[in-house]
From TrEMBL:
Top-level taxon: Bacteria
Range of residues in the leader sequence: none
Pfam families membership: Sigma70_r4_2
GO-annotated molecular function: DNA binding; sigma factor activity
Matches recorded under InterPro entries: RNA_pol_sigma-70-like (IPR039425), RNA_pol_sigma-70_dom (IPR014284), RNA_pol_sigma70_r4_t2 (IPR013249), RNA_pol_sigma_r2 (IPR013325), RNA_pol_sigma_r3/r4-like (IPR013324), WH-like_DNA-bd_sf (IPR036388)
Family note: Belongs to the sigma-70 factor family. ECF subfamily.
UniProt-listed PANTHER family: RNA POLYMERASE ECF-TYPE SIGMA FACTO, RNA POLYMERASE SIGMA-70 FACTOR ECF SUBFAMILY
Keyword flag Transmembrane: no
Organism: Aquimarina algicola
Protein's recorded name: Sigma-70 family RNA polymerase sigma factor
Length: 185
């Protein structure tokens, strides 16, 4: 009987060669354990699932560049923890920035700053509007349900008639496309 490490190593090699079945098998083997591990670091269940999906999307996307992993399970858990922490830290930085920006506005508000802020907002809204047009109608609907109507992944899945995993992937890809579209403009 093969050990868990050797099965994982074999799956890893197959993933590096582009085997989608091996990728799916590795995902199925560890999704529950990764989820349990993730919610030990944050109570935001949707956030944990987003990080797990980001991790697996990165693995598949960069599969040709992956190094050999002696312990695939350790690699997955360490990578997930890093993703959770990195995203959490970036959320804190954005929050801190917003707080400081509010303080600056209240202390040094002027007509010129107000005009500049309005122009920036208009520019951002224009870029976002153009970028939204590049999305498929299903992606636009998913983004609208998630961010405008504040629906959960489960609710969006029911509305769109697709699985929760498909909703997560749909939202992830839409947001990624929006970011790249906005950065290009």
């Amino acid at each position: 009987m093969q050990s868990v490490k050797s099965i994982d190593s074999l799956l890893w090699v197959k993933i590096k060669l582009g085997d989608l079945n091996a990728f799916n098998e590795l995902y199925d083997r560890y999704i529950d354990q990764l989820y349990e591990f993730g919610i030990q670091h944050t109570s935001d269940k949707d956030y944990v699932m987003d990080c797990i999906h980001d991790l697996f999307l990165d693995i598949y996307k960069y599969r040709k560049k992956l190094s050999n992993a002696d312990n695939v399970k350790f690699y997955l858990f360490k990578s997930l923890k890093r993703k959770i922490n990195r995203k959490y830290k970036s959320k804190i930085k954005l929050y801190d920035f917003d707080d400081k920006q509010d303080e600056i506005k209240s202390s040094y508000a002027s007509a010129e700053e107000s005009i500049i802020q309005t122009e920036k907002s208009t520019e951002i809204n224009t870029k976002l509007s153009c970028a939204l047009q590049s999305l498929s109608s299903k992606q636009r609907k998913g983004i609208s349900l998630k961010f405008d109507e504040k629906k959960s992944y489960e609710e969006i899945a029911a509305i769109l008639g697709i699985s929760i995993e498909s909703v997560r992937t749909l939202i992830y890809r839409a947001v990624k496309k929006l970011r790249s579209e906005i950065e290009m403009k």
